[in-house]
Amino acid sequence: MMIELKRTSSEDTDFETLTGLLDQDLERRYPGTRDFFQPLNKIKLDAKAVVAYEDGKPVGCGCYREAAEGQTVEIKRMYVLDENRGRGIAGQVLRELETWAKEAGKKRAILETGRGQPEAIALYTKSGYAEIDRYAPYTDREDSVCMGKDL
């Protein structure tokens, strides 16, 4: 089956549906952390989103937004439906986000994930990301893992 990638915005209804499922997944993995993370997961309207489709059905997503440093983006809201995992979809979404960021003149990507998401850490490591110091607002979050990569 072929995966189609669509560049879109954070207002895309398929992106919103998938990130709603992501929020449910994160609540199961990290009970009681919603109050801390929910405001951080609000996506600004200028975010660049990618939605992955299989046979016309949205199966995965991710986005990036400008980070504090001018030529850096922060990868956010990466998610693939449970039944579609393990087939390389998240890697395709991530590569598309990196390509889009490079086209926009960005030089570096950073991200935050959690220790309760070993599959995400494995994806990012395989994709060339390395652990970096936790950045704000995750500095004091022991369960947070921050990673970065030069594009």
UniProtKB/TrEMBL annotation:
Protein name: GNAT family N-acetyltransferase
